[in-house]
Structure prediction request, 653 residues.
Amino acid sequence: MAEICYGVLGENEASSACETSARAARRRRMEIRRFKFVSGVAAPAESTVNAEKRKRLECCTVSRGMEKCGDEEKGNLVKIESQEGVSSLTISSKCPPTSAPVLNPDAKFGMVSVCGRRRDMEDAVSIHPSFCRGDQETANNLHYYAVYDGHGCSHVATRCRERFHEVVKEEIENKALHEWQSALERSFTRMDMEVTAWTQGTVAGANCRCELQMPECEAVGSTAVVAIVTPDKIIVANCGDSRAVLCRGGKAVPLSSDHKPDRPDELNRIEEAGGRVIYWDGPRVLGVLAMSRAIGDNYLKPYVSCEPEVTITDRTAEDDCLILGSDGLWDVVSNDTACGVALMCLKGKAHAPAMESEGSEVENSDRACSDASTLLTKLALARHSADNVSVVVVNLKSNT
Amino acid sequence: MASGDREESKCCFKEWMTTQEEDLSELFQALTVEPENIDQLKQLAEKSITHFQDYIKRRNKLAHKDISAYFAPNWCSPWENSLLWVAGCRPSLFFRLVYALSGSEVESNLTEFLLGTKEGYLGEVMSSTQLLMINALQSKTISEEERLTMKLAALQEDIADQPIAMIAKGLSKVGEMNGEVEKVLDNHGRQMVKVLEEADGLRMNTLKELVKILSPLQAVDFLVASKKLHLCVHNWGRQRDQKLGRKEIDEEC
Prediction:
C-alpha cells in the first residue's frame, strides 16, 4: 500500500490505513529466519489540493475499493478510490464541508509507503495531526506521526496503525502533560497487551496472511517509532529498528537508537533475562528475531521487550525537518544522505514532477515534504532496498 | 497430438520473437533519434502492445490443441523454461524492471543533486503520483499472481487424485493408453488452458495499466528494456545450452 498525505488540519486525522490481503489461506510454513512475511497488499494514494488559496485540509487516501480504510470518518477528506486498480480514479468527498477544519499551520508532512521489491506489505504508517485534545490549549497542537514495520505477518503493524495513537492519546490525557516518558512507556505496554489479547481473542475475520492461526501468530510483531511533535518539543518513542532522524541546521541528529540484538546494552539485557543472541544471518534473539525490542512477538518475551526508549528534544529555530522511516530506508540510505535529500526538497531546489492531475501549489510546503518522502523512497529503491519502504517527512520550519 | 500442431506452436513463437526484434529496433530508434516526438512514442507503444495481444490470441488458439507445449516449450532452452510462470513471464517482473530503470537514474544523479549543481532533476524519473499508482498496481498484480499460482497448484495436485491417479493404479500395464485416459487428460488440459488464459490476461492488463501510468517516453524506455531483456534471456539460454553440448533447437519454421 502506498499513500501520500500532504498534511494539515485541525480536526482531521490522516490515517494511512489500508488493510489488505485477501490472500487465500496459504498455510505456508513459517520461514523463521528471514522473519518477514507475506501478507498485506496495497493501496495507493494521491492527493489533491487546496481549493482556494487558503490551506485547507489535504489528506487523501487512495485505497483499493475492497479495502477498509481506517479512522477517517471524522474529517473532511477527499478520498480517491480505485476499484479496478489505478485505472479509474474517482473522487468522492466523504464528508460535506460543513465541519470546517481548523487551520493547523504547523502540521506539514508528506509520506510514502510502498511494497517495493517484496511481495508482501508489512509496513504501516500512521499520521494524525492534532490527535490529542487535552484540556490545555496547547494540546491541540500535538501531532502524531508513526511508522510500524511488521514481521512474521502484517497484522500487528496494522493493529498499531489502527489503535496506537488512540492509546497514546488516552495515556497523555490521563497524565499531566510533560510526563512524556511514563505516558509513552505505558502506551507501549498497553499496545503490546492489546495486540496479544486481540490475536488470541479474534476467532475469525483476520484478513492477513497468517489468519491469526496459532502458533504462527505468536511469532508476529512490529517495530514502532512514534513521534509526537508539539509547538516546542519533539518526543520520540522507539521500539525496534525503525528510526527517527532530526535534520537540524543541515545536520542529521538521530532521535532514536535502533534496537539490534548486538547493541551492547541490549545484549546484556537479553542475557540477564536468560535469553541468548545467536548469529544466524546476523545477530538474532534466540537465533530468530533480528531486533531486540518490538510490539508483539509473544513467544520471545521477555528477551524481546516492548519497552520504548523515549527521547525528548526541544525544538529550535534551526530545525528543518523530521524523518521517520522503516529499515527499508535506513538499510541503504544514511542519516546524513536522507537529511541532505530532504533539505534540498524543502529548499525547493528539487521536486518531483507534477502530473497534470495534480494541482501544483508552488508555495505549499507540504508538497515539498511529499517530494522529499518520494525522493527518499526512490533512492532506497534505487539502492536496491529489498524491503518495504516507508518514509514520513515532517517540516519543522516555522510558518513560511 | 498431431506433430503439425506443435510445429505451428513453435512457428508462432519464432514469429513472435522476430516481431519482438523488429519492435525493439523501431522503439529504440524512436527513443534515441526523436525522443521529443510524443505522438510517435505513443503510437509505437500502442503498436507494440497490439502485437503482444495478437501473439497471445494466436497462441491461445493453438494452446487448445496442445497446452503442455506451452508450459514446457521445447523451443526455449531449459534455462528459459525454468524462469517461466504459467507459460510466460511473471507480470510482477514488470515492476522490478521499472524500479531498476528509474533507480539507475536516481542514483547517478544523486551526487550532483546533493551538491546543488543539478537542480530539479532527481525527481524527473518518476513522480510521486506515478510511484503510488505503480505501487498500487504492483500489489494488485501480485495478489492476482498468487491467486493464479494457487489455481495452478491445485491443478497439478489433481494429477495425484481422483480420477487420474486411480485410473493409473487400476491399469494392468504401466503407461497403457485408453479412451478413459485420453478423456481425463484432455479434460485436465482444458483446465490448464483456462489458467493460461487468465495468466495471459493478467500479463496483458498489467502491461496496459503500467504503460498508462508511465509517460510515453518512460513507456517506450520500459518497452525497449523489457524486449531486450526477453530476447537476451532467450539467446543466452540457447548459447549456454550449446556450451553444455545440448542439441541446438531446430531453427526451421
Notes: The helical segments of chain A are 155-174, 180-201, 264-272, 327-330, 335-346, 365-382. Chain A touches chain B through 54 residues (CB under 8 Å).
